[in-house]
Amino acid sequence: MNDHQFFFFSFLGLAQNSGLFGHHMDFPWQANADFKARLSRLFGCHLTSVTCKLLALVTIALFFRAVLLHSFSAYGVMEWNNLDLILSRSLLLNSDVGIRRDKFLKVPQIVWGLNNQKIAFARACLTARMLNRTLLMPSLSASLFYKEIYRLQPISFDKVFQFERFNSLCNGFVRLGRYSDLKNQTPVYDLQKGSGRKWTVERDLEQLKQSSRGPVDKYEVIRIVGKNPFLWHDHWPVKDYARVFECLVLVDEIAKEADRVVSKIRQIGRKLRRKTETVQNNFDAEGSSLPPAPYVAVHMRVEIDWMIHCKNLEQRSGISQICSSKQEIMERVGNIVGLEFPTVVYLAVADSLLNDSSVLGGWKKGLHPFEKKKLGVDGIYKKHPYLIQSAIDYEVCSRADVFVGNSFSTFSSLIVLERTQKMIRMGITSSCDIDVRWPSYAYNIPGESNSPQIWMTNMSDSSLKAISYGSNAISC
């Protein structure tokens, strides 16, 4: 067999082994016992290795192309671009790009508020990605207890977000697995996350690097014990977190609940506008076609516990632009340039404020404030645990035509991140001083004419710190 024949048959053999021609073809040299041994010696590795198989396939394919190109160039009978396309697709289809499905990472139950849990989940995903492992689907927390961990009510990830949809959208970046995927081939390896002042970002990163190779990497499951993932050191840029967040799609049941709330808000908005049209034009506008009524969503943090927290935070940080009173919020929202009146203002407030009529009074003429009780949708919320209620409110706020929040709130920060992503997809890289769709504002930072400051997430940040813990540096 000459050199051309050897590489030709070698290519066909590896192509069959990789699935390029399917698994139903039999070749006459398959009975040759030294076939794989010859290729193993040629590439210096074992053909049982996925990496070696891919290396062999690529190398032989390129050599095969060069040989045949030389042999058949005079005849012009082969479409080389098509061959390149076939080979490229085959390599992609037969490889899990950087994500192993036989190695897993397990993390502690994810706790605290919805958006703290989303950050913790994303951090766990990115940790698994760094270790080249599939993240075992974690438990979220349906209830909200900061200190009494034993009282946390666990809820499965796939009861809140779509599991298969997540893997589809994040394919090739991060991956979720189920416990049924485990083969229990090795004992679980417990990895203790460091703590204390001596445990630096650098030491944490080095621990992860060591766990991605050597003896630890041989374990089927690495179980991280200790801290909630939200408290882990951050090693990833904002854009990596945003990539994970984009894959989180609510299950249909929760999404439909949010649809009902948004529909109710827009319905009231249409009625208000229809009434205004009737008065101004002195005719019955009931049958007139009005465009969908826009609404403003305000994440209004004025609860007693929040005010205590933000005052302490202001003292510790030396930043005065964290707390805002009800009066300041109302005044600044009313000063937003370009608002069309009448407009419904949806107030995302804690249940403790639902009986506080003061949050509904004092708004600028033309702004009509509603919270879930006045809106008549509190029954939708009450039948769900805390986590689901927060998820519904998040959707209602994120879909608003204008959003106003607090830049030191994780809830507000993740909504602005999502809205920034929407603008970027529309080709907008800056919302500062221009009229754009999906504008966001921070009411705790005064802008021009005592309006809230325009807010856009800095997607080039090297970490999520500004979002996780808040900042008054909000790009504009």
TrEMBL record:
<comment type="similarity">
    <text>Belongs to the glycosyltransferase GT106 family.</text>
</comment>
<protein>
    <recommendedName>
        <fullName>O-fucosyltransferase family protein</fullName>
    </recommendedName>
</protein>
<keyword id="KW-0328">Glycosyltransferase</keyword>
<keyword id="KW-0294">Fucose metabolism</keyword>
<keyword id="KW-0119">Carbohydrate metabolism</keyword>
<dbReference type="InterPro" id="IPR019378">
    <property type="entry name" value="GDP-Fuc_O-FucTrfase"/>
</dbReference>
<dbReference type="GO" id="GO:0006004">
    <property type="term" value="P:fucose metabolic process"/>
</dbReference>
<dbReference type="GO" id="GO:0009875">
    <property type="term" value="P:pollen-pistil interaction"/>
</dbReference>
<keyword id="KW-0808">Transferase</keyword>
<dbReference type="InterPro" id="IPR044982">
    <property type="entry name" value="AtOFT1-like"/>
</dbReference>
<dbReference type="GO" id="GO:0016757">
    <property type="term" value="F:glycosyltransferase activity"/>
</dbReference>
<dbReference type="Pfam" id="PF10250">
    <property type="entry name" value="O-FucT"/>
</dbReference>
